[in-house]
Amino acid sequence: MNKNILIVIMCLLVISIALSPIVSAKYNSEDEIKRGHIHLLAVSEGTEQGSLADLYLEIRPGYGNVYIDTFPLTKMDTQLSTRFAKQVACNFLNKDCSKYDFFYTIKAGSSIIGGPSAGAASAMLTVALLEGNEFDETVTITGTINTGGIIGNVGGIKAKIEAAATNNITKVLVPIGSAFVLNETKLNNTYEEIIQVISNKNVNGSGNGSNSNNESILNNTQGETNNVNETDNVIDIINISQRNVSDKVDLVEFGNELGIEVIEVLTLRDALKEFTGKEYEKPAGEIQLEEFYIDTMNKIGEEICSRTKELENKLFETIEAGEGVISKEDLVNISSYNQSMELIKNAELAIELNQTYAAASYCFGANINLDNLILLNANLTEQKKIKKLNELIDAINNSNVIIDEMNLTSFNDLQTFLIVKERLIEAFNTWERAIEAANENKTNLEYEIAYVTERLFSAYSWSYFFNTTDDEFVMDEEVMKGSCQTIVNEAQERLEYFKLLYPYPLPLLDSTSKEIDRALTSFNNNKFRICLMHASKAKSEIDAVLSTINLEDDELQRLLDAKLELVEQVILEQQLKGLFPIQGYSYYEYAKALGENDKVSGLIYSQYALEFSNLNLYFERIEEVDEWDVFIDYLSEFFNVKTLVAFIIGFVCASFVFIGYLFVKDTKKQVKKADKKNLSMKKSSKNIKIKKNKKTRRK
Fold first, then answer.
1. Nearest in space to 158 (alpha carbons), one of 80, 93, 87, 249
2. What is the pLDDT of residue 242?
3. Residue 663 — pLDDT band, cuts 50, 70, 90?
4. Contacts of 512 (CB under 8 A, 6+ apart)
5. 392-411: buried (b, 16+ CB within 10 Å) or exposed (e) per residue?
6. Alpha-carbon distance 4 to 12, whole Å?
7. How far apart are alpha carbons 360 and 91 in whole angstroms?
8. Which of 125, 147, 453, 578 sits at a 20 to 30 Å CA gap from 333?
9. Alpha carbons 627 and 560: distance in angstroms, whole number
10. What is the pLDDT of residues 189-202, one digit of tens each?
11. Percent of the chain as helix, strand, coil, to the nearest 5
């Protein structure tokens, strides 16, 4: 190639690239900024009257930051819920939002009650703007945004609909189960009535623990996942709230009278259809169990249920040998034994249905009862009981040392850690209660010894899930710390909001409050993994309560069916990402099994399933990077339409500049050539004259 031509091309490219940013800066300055607005339904502080506020959102190219401005100033929980709403929206679209900054502004005419009730509207507006969808500003929503994109219950809906009717709103979206509300603003149970409900429950034997007789009053139908104590208070709240449903208002009819269309929605997907008209497809197909999950879960189920058979045989052998204080005749009259036989039948049925986790849960409940009966039959001395407790605490401590030193890299490793650690903590808490009882000279420690033993056994079994996958996430201490802090804040936000809406006596909130306290204690002790576990449980519990409060049986069933369907969708979406939420799926399977006879427990475990299926939301996945793919992606990103247009414009401008330069250069060259020619002609003319003069002289 001619050297001059090569120089020309290189000059054109350099000039084009230099001019491209100047052109594209003008081209991109406003095009990538997205702005939108939605009305918020609120309740004014002090008056509990409905009012309207405005939420503005601006999305700019940036670094994933979230900025929130409110007027009048709202509480911190509003800021937390807005940040979480942005996170849920990005996760819903499976979009990397680290390239954008989000500016949320809430403006209200008067002070409004803070809280997470603007979460659903924030998430809905965020999705619409990120997608560039048109939306109807006469449509609004009131509700929290929960894990999995669920729209959660809020208060003051009747007052909010009244406010909407006077502000040109045509459609109000409300959480599922909110179509009917109490005619009163507060629940009408007295403290004494609520305590009576709890007392009746305990008298009828639905509590957990052991009594002074040689019989365990254990109704461990909550299974292998949690000690039944951990969910008793949640069930109490829901059951008590059902006593208030006689005096209700139909909000759909109420809205029609005011010219407002009131529609119940369960998820962000449902809400977006009403807001933008766009219907987002649900993941198709059925959950396909991963091979590693089937193999490992079968191993766990087989191990726990094999132990059931061993304990049953051991109990019969000791009774037949006459080595203890229980006879065959006594056995059939002991309720815990009969319950164990029922749990074994449930486990056998679950195995037939391929519900391995449910089977393991039923076997676990049976194992505690059978182990307890073996200990009772042995009639151990107090010294032998203390010796067993000392052996158990050594085993707990050794297990904690091993698991705390494990390096977690995969999502499954994190899930397995949380599952195993939860069981070790429950074992320790029960051991601690046994030691306290022994110090108070209480002699009936058999149940506690049995529970700690079986909890330890289940912890060992679940450890089989370690190192079953090779996906990698960023899980260093700083990431764990940030994730824990976020979930704790979300749980606290919802708990405070619940107390504001439903001022039940605080003992009924003990379960959630204790989990939050445990999470904070772990956080302060730099045990961020443990903090994550307690915080996730607390958030699940309060979300379950908020979504089920004041629902009747038929509404509970409808909500349970909807939540189970949503869990399926979440797990399918995770599988599309190459992940399988082992803890989330296990809770899902157990929720289905429980829901057939106990809808409230099914709802609680379906909420656990949602929370733990989305746990990866708080962590960044480490993707395998191909350098060639990175280079191609860079070129694709650099030479996008806007940059290409800018480059072409720059190239054209550079071409004109260069042509002008060549024209000037050529003109100068021509002038110089003409001057040279003139000079040459002058020299020639002069030479001729000289020659003529020479000839003249010769003559």
1. 249
2. 53
3. low
4. 233, 234, 491, 495, 538, 541, 542, 545
5. bbebbeebbeebeeeebbbb
6. 12
7. 33
8. 453
9. 47
10. 544 554 454 444 44
11. 65, 10, 25
DSSP 643-675: HHHHHHHHHHHHHHHHHHHHHHHHHHHHHHHHH
The DSSP-derived string for 473-516 is: E---HHHHHHHHHHHHHHHHHHHHHHHHH----GGGGHHHHHHH
Residue 192, CA distances (Å) to 198, 232, 239, 504, 650 in order: 10, 18, 15, 11, 80
Measured CA to CA in angstroms, residue 170 lies from 110, 255, 258, 495, 598 at distances of 23, 10, 10, 32, 38
103 φ, ψ (degrees, to nearest 5): -115, 105
| 25 CB burial (10 A radius; 0-12, 13-18, 19+) | exposed
Neighbours of 671 (CB within 10 A): 10
Tokens for 698, please give them: 């010769």
Q: How many CB atoms lie within 10 A of CB 575?
A: 18
Helix (H) / strand (E) containing 418 = helix 411-439
∠544-298-345 over CA atoms, to 5°? 70
Strand partners, 180: 250
Residue 636 in tokens: 């694709």
| CA–CA distances in Å: residue 333 to residues 61, 220, 309, 339, 374 | 72, 18, 20, 11, 16
Q: Crossing angle of helices 582-595/411-439, nearest 10°?
A: 60
Three-class SS of 78-113: HHHHHHHHHHHHHHHHCCCCCCEEEEEEEEECCCEC
pLDDT of residue 619: 76
Report whether 70 contacts 40 (CB < 8 A): no
pLDDT per position as a tens digit, 682-692: 556 555 555 55
Angstrom distance (rounded) from CA 84 to CA 487:
10
Buried-exposed string 625-640: b where 16+ CB fall within 10 A, e elsewhere: eeeeeeeeeeeeeeee
Report the C-alpha gap between 497 and 72 in whole angstroms. Answer: 19
| Confidence tier at 214 by pLDDT (50, 70, 90) | very low
Q: Which amino acid is at 13?
A: L
Residue 481 phi/psi, 5° resolution?
-60, -50
pLDDT in tens, 249-261: 889 999 999 999 9
Q: In this structure, are residues 275 and 135 in contact, taking their beta carbons and an 8 Å threshold?
A: yes
pTM for this model (two decimals)? 0.73
CA distance 659 to 664: 9
What Rg, from alpha-carbon coordinates, does the chain have? 36
3-state secondary structure of 19: helix
Asked whether the predicted pLDDT for residue 509 surpasses 90, the reply is no
pLDDT tens-digit series, residues 70-118: 876 555 457 778 888 998 999 899 888 988 999 999 988 766 655 688 8
Q: Show Cβ contacts of residue 624 under 8 Å, excluding neighbours closer than 6 positions.
A: none
Contacts of 593 (CB under 8 A, 6+ apart): 350, 355, 358, 361
User: Cβ distance 105 to 69 under 8 Å?
Assistant: yes
∠ Cα 345 347 352 (to 5°): 100
Three-state secondary structure call for residue 59: strand
> Would you state the torsion angle of the CA atoms of residues 681, 682, 687, 688, taken in this order, to the nearest 10 degrees?
70
What is the pairing mode between strands 621-622 and 472-473? antiparallel
Tokens of 302: 């087989």
CA distances from 218 to 19, 404, 438, 443 (A): 78, 31, 20, 18
Q: With beta carbons less than 8 A apart as the criterion, state whether 88 and 268 touch.
A: yes
pLDDT confidence tier of residue 332, bands split at 50, 70 and 90: confident
Ranking 137-151, 630-644, 682-696 by mean pLDDT, the lowest is 630-644
**pLDDT band with cut points at 50, 70 and 90 for residue 296:** very high
Count of residues making up the chain: 699
- The pLDDT tens digits of the residues spanning 427-468 come to 999 999 999 999 988 878 999 999 999 999 999 999 999 988
